Amino acid sequence: MSTRRKKSETAPARADRAQQPAAEYAISSGNYHEDLLHDLFHVVRSIDPDHTPTLVDMIRNHASLDEVRAYLTRALAAAQPSAPDQEDALRRLEGLRRGIEVESEPPRFRPQIMDIRYLCSNAPYRVPAKPWTSVTDDDDLVSHLVSLYLIWDYPFFAFFDSGTFIKHMAMGNTESDFCSPFLVNALLANACYYSQYTEAYTVPGDVRTKGADFLAEAERHLQSHQFEKGGDIRLASLQAHLLLYERYSLSGHNDWGYTMLHRAIEMGESLGIVNKKTDLRLSVSQMSEDMIVSIKRTAWGLFQVDTVVHTNFLRPSRVRSVSVERIDRNGLNTSDMWAPYPVSQKSRPSYLNLYFDEACKLSFIARDISWSLSRTDRSGTEPDQRKQELYDRLSAWESNLPECFDPATRPAPHLLLLRMRYHTLVINLCCDRFGFHPILSEGDERTPRESKGFSAVEIALSSARTIAALTQQLRVEYGMEHAHQFAMYSVNLALFTLLGQDTFDILDRDFLTLTSAMSIIACRSQLGRHLFHLFKLSVRSRNQGDRVQQSDEVPPGIKELFQPDSKAQVPDRWDKYAEGLTKIDGEQSYVDHFQDDPQSLATSGLHEMLQRYERLSVGKEDEWRDRRPKGVTHF
């Protein structure tokens, strides 16, 4: 099935949403409805002050959400803007409804007034704080954070067995092979990325401090987990290293992202679960069922993390093979229903084992793509022919996905992210690694053989637009405030694929949809803020800002973001996104360079963007070995 057909199949919901009243859409569209209600109340107040006491009375008298929704819809329908500020407010509301307004602030962090214990009464996982962490003794907070991680982050890689982890965490045995203080604190540090409560911050509202206390404790445990040759390696320690990779890659903290990943790979090699010439036999006569399933999850999860990271930045993956069997794709899973806690309790099938197996299949193709694009492929085939073969394998994988993965079935977010992962691989494959410009269309001698009737650049652009459709569905169904960090990579890659074309149109609806989604994701981490700042400069360098200003269809936030430099406010509300962005490459001071010539820091293309993304996120891969302790061969 061609990529173009897939695009048309993932986008039908757009037309339906376009017909929804603004207020109805605002309240029904996922976990950012509180922010939209805030905007709606503001609009109603500015239009007619008499609406305010009516609303207050409705709330005091315990009116249902549907009743409030109906009242707001009537008020908005009757509104006749008579002043510029009212027109701007309604235009911004319309932009939010269409998914093309941008945000420059994270969702307002929630104080304990709402009481985190209300959430925890519905938390799907109940676990104790002690003896696992010294940061807090609040079981409710720890249960909340563990639930957030297992709901929103865990399914994408699933590199440990969640059921085994929860069981052993509840037992409180710190010597367990499946749970340790190191693992728990690393998990809690990651979980804070998904929380908007003050308890997730060291400094409330400062995204740079999210989970900092838990991270500091995990790092203290890390120091005691440097293994000498012949030392024992606990499975939980390997898993904790992968969690720290995730945490560091969001902050760019000391360029330790690659370091944690490669230490985890070395630990996997020492355990014999990856890169081993002979398979490792797992027998119930020698180990428990918990150990068998945990080893399988960790081995194949490590393979997935490795292929995702290295293919993202077009470096050769390091895990060549996995030495244990995969999880049975048709096996039962105790947590095979998924509900978007704390947004709602409405559950849907997780299909976790089925997803995990399909993700592993995709990882084999990703591994081969990473080797091919980094010139480590030794198959002897011509590069163009090799790309064709890899694209055909990708297409076959996508066409054979189970029907229950179809976006039209409104699946859980990790199933949407799996398709986004497929499309990022398509874009990477369709780009020239050594120059990294999109492959030119027919008529250019450098163009490889066309695939299934489309040129490579058309395929890449189609995948970018499909990512936009999937992103909008993810946003409408679940909101972007809880999106896995891979969504940031996928959205950013799609944006720069569109931006890099000679025919780039700043008013392209897919481009504006992706921009809006990226602005929400970017608010949640220091890495996201840095990437969004560089994206803003890159778009402004295309000199299409005047077209934005003249459009009646573009909401005010987009106009401010992309306004020409001659009209730009100094400073604008996104300038703080450059805070802490000291250098991107080499020893050049970013701040000094920015003051001298801001536009010179605009990203010239996909290649340069990924180089900067890599540097800001996981560091430089060729530097990680310098960080290994002297004389240590095992971790």
Descriptive tags:
Notoamide_regulator; 635 residues; disordered N terminus; two-stranded antiparallel ribbon; globular; transcription; zinc ion binding; nucleus; XnlR_reg_dom
What order do the strands of the largest sheet run in, or round the barrel if closed?
A: 1-2
Rg computed from alpha carbons, rounded to a whole number of angstroms? 25 Å
* Major beta-sheet overview: 2 strands, antiparallel
Task: Please provide the count of β strands.
Answer: 2
- Distance separating the two termini: 45 Å
- Secondary structure: helix percent: 40-55%
Strand content: under 5%
Q: Please mark out the parts with pLDDT under 50 across 5 or more consecutive residues, or reply none.
A: 1-36, 433-453, 626-635
Q: Name the structural class.
A: mainly alpha
| Total number of domains | 3
Silhouette? globular
- Average pLDDT score: 80
Q: Could you spell the SSE succession in H and E letters?
A: HHHHHHHHHHHHHHHEEHHHHHHHHHHH
User: Total number of helical segments?
Assistant: 26
GO molecular function: DNA binding; zinc ion binding
Region (Disordered): 1-21
Protein name: Pathway-specific regulatory protein
GO biological process, one term: DNA-templated transcription
